[in-house]
Amino acid sequence: MEKSSIRHDWTVQEAREIYNLPLPELIYRAQTVHRHFHPPNAVQLCTLLSVKTGACPEDCSYCPQSARYETGVEAERLMSVEEVLEGARRAKEAGASRFCMGAAWRSPKEGSNQWKRVLEMVRGVRSLGMEACATLGMLSDEQARELKEAGLTAYNHNIDTSKEFYGEIITTRDFEDRLETIRAVADAGIHVCSGGIIGMGEKLNDRVAMLVTLARLEPHPESVPINALVAVAGTPLEDRPKVTAVEMARMCATARILMPASMVRLSAGRSEMSEEAQLLCITAGANSIFYGDKLLTTGNPDVEADMAMMRAAGLEALVPADPEAGREVATSTSLPAMPPAVEAS
Ligand code: SAM
Ligand code: DTB
Ligand code: SF4
To answer: Would you list the domain boundaries of the chain?
Structure first.
């Protein structure tokens, strides 16, 4: 399969047909695509840190950090650069290659001291030799340029669901606002990381329409997080039924087929999935996970459990491509020795 088989003209109907294939056929097709574009047995390890938690003015109904819902998440100020870099060093030692900093903001305040601190965090993470990602809300063109200048590798900004369902989940911004920030990020030369959530009450059509919106971007997002809703008590979506492993695997496989060269990240929801369910998603084309015992405010499998799962399955950690060394394709390496247990602070 040539690189030219990357398409930007997928239709919702085509994506639906792919999503609905019998599972063995779907996985076979996703694996076939996967192997033409990626090392077959390697998984990217990305560690998340919430650098500014809670008290968010937005009303995203899935989110425990919205100030509108009583979820028990305590509002915190923006962390210091040193605290964040300490987290990044620990993540690197544990084997993560990408460090992603999240802030519960609608958008960062242009030119503020907080903004300058965030830029400092990005520089610091890059100087550790890690890929730096951030998710800070909506950005202006100027902010995207400044992040690029600071060395940011990727910016996460999820479209979350279909254009049609978006208004059922969030009212404080619209789908077009999301696409506008994604455009600003791409124009600044930063990799786009964009995906969404399933299990919010959306229909199958919304799931595949979300993937088609992403697959129609040129270029495709560098990475596509597939989150299962973490139904947090106090949010409007607290009672939504859990998605199944097969639904997650279908989403990962469909994303893989529609966006062959993108990293497909099996994201939130792993804590509630068995090891077998997670490996099904990886077999279906996911090649990245959030790694570390916390996502932003909710839990994630601990490092030891992930190491054990990867070793048992013969998976390796992905080493990022190094454009400066003239290497454009990611390769894999053996997993690091089991890291020392980190005391909870
Ligand atoms: N405030 C910024 C924004 O909304 O873009 C950045 C942080 S926000 C927490 C990043 C993403 O986390 C959201 O777009 C959503 O996809 C995901 N997310 C938040 N809460 C979640 C939940 N309960 N379950 C699954 N994914 C969730
Ligand atoms: C993404 O798609 N998922 C991550 C990351 N990008 C920022 C966040 C998941 C958050 C889950 C709920 C929480 O821990 O607060
Ligand atoms: Fe705020 Fe982001 Fe949570 Fe929405 S998803 S409430 S913007 S932190």
So the answer is: 11-333
The secondary structure of 229-281 as a DSSP string is P---TTSTTTTPPPPPHHHHHHHHHHHHHHSTTSEEEE-TTGGGS-HHHHHHH
> Considering only CA atoms, which residue is closest to atom 1 of ligand 2?
225
Q: Ligand 2, closest atom to CA 225?
A: 2
**Catalytic pick from 29, 250, 256, 265?**
265
What is the per-residue pLDDT for 319? 79
Distance CA 136, CA 65 (A): 13
Whether the model clears a pTM of 0.85, i.e. scores above it, the answer is: yes
| CATH fold label, 11-333 | TIM Barrel (3.20.20)
Per-residue pLDDT of 231-245, as tens digits, reads: 999 999 999 999 999
For ligand 3, which residues put their CB under 6 angstroms from it?
56, 58, 60, 63, 65-66, 104, 106, 137
Percentage of residues in the chain with pLDDT exceeding 90? 88
pLDDT digits (tens, 9 = 90+) for 13-56: 999 999 999 999 999 999 999 999 999 999 999 999 999 999 99
